[in-house]
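Student: Hello, beginner here. Can you help me understand the protein record under this note? Any guidance would be welcome.
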Amino acid sequence: MAERPYEVADGAEFYPMALFPQLAVSDTERSTAWYERLGFEPVFAYGETVHLRYATGADLMLVGRGAPTGAGAGVTVYVNASEPLEDVFERLRTTGGTAEEPTETPYNTRELRLRDPDGYQFVFSEPVDTDRSFDEVLGGA
């Protein structure tokens, strides 16, 4: 039997996704390593295409066709963090990633803004007070 030209992670689950961002990257290996430091895990790889997953339904496809000029301009990928923001920030800080300190927003969240090696902006978010209702946060109650 011929060897498969692709790799699938052990136990990988495949399911339809309502939204599946694909990012053009200049170096698939470098970008994959960067996203792995954030907590993404490879699901599938085929040539210069890598499917990564942060959590169920939070997937990215990296496509190695070279980042277009001005990559990331006007694009922000918003991620509900599955771990404390300080952990993500510390991993990036010690590995040379570009990130700002987590900040609190008026919307009952703390956000960590960062950029990947091709300039795409990501915002990892966590709730500040999980007991506050939507109306309380927006001043309606």
In short: Residues 18-129 form a domain with the 2,3-Dihydroxybiphenyl 1,2-Dioxygenase; domain 1 fold (CATH 3.10.180.10).
